[in-house]
Amino acid sequence: MVGLTGLAAALESYRGRDRLIRTLGYCSQLVGGVLVGYCPARSEVGTRLLVLSSQLSHCRTILRLFDDLAMFACTTQYGLGAKEEDVLVRCLSVLGNLADQLYYPCEHIAWAADTKILPVDSARWWVLSTAFWGLSLLLGIARSLWMVLKLRQQLRSPTPAFISQLPRSQRRAMRAQMQSELLTILSNLADLANAVHWLPPGILWAGRFPPWLVGLLGTISSLLSVYQAIQASGWADPATS
């Protein structure tokens, strides 16, 4: 009952609902791609699932039309990261916020072009938005890798006195943060693989993924994001927070 209540509360929020739509969309693409590609007898069901996945993705695109202000507030609140002690983390975070901020208007223009609201070529704007997304993911991976290295170095300090002076709760928090950063790296790598796939042909593996592989990578990323949200909010068990 507690888990159901927590899930219901999460779905009341925009982010919680977006995670669910994203997970369902990629799962539908994964199953639909497998059925269409490898189960001819079930290809009709697979096609319907792929249509469902496309519609869920379109739904998220529509909802992101209203994300600019929230992203701008986040960007301005962080600013130049004056409160951040690590210079590299500060630089990567500022650049990541900038890439995220530029991603949204590019996607909005691409959507508006597809719907004939704006008389422009949507393809170049989709490519630009995907490029900003990929850049944001790369910066996020670099930031998380640096954080993992720093935390690992602190936890494995050659000075035993340093570790012994840390409260147990702080050591536990550092290990939890390191685990979270590792999960973020895995999630971003899965998304980055898909981002490259959606770039114009000729760039690395762009356009070479079958639908089921895109769905698999997206499902992995989505489930990791859901797990991290559960860990952060403690839906499943207060002891895990």
Automatic annotation (TrEMBL):
GO CC terms in record: peroxisomal membrane
InterPro entries according to UniProt: PEX11 (IPR008733), PEX11C_met (IPR026510)
Presence of the UniProt keyword Ligase in the record: no
A Pfam family: PEX11
Transmembrane segments annotated in the record for this chain: 125-146
GO biological process, one term: peroxisome fission
Keywords: Membrane, Peroxisome, Transmembrane, Transmembrane helix
Cellular location(s): Peroxisome membrane
UniProt name for this protein: Peroxisomal biogenesis factor 11 gamma
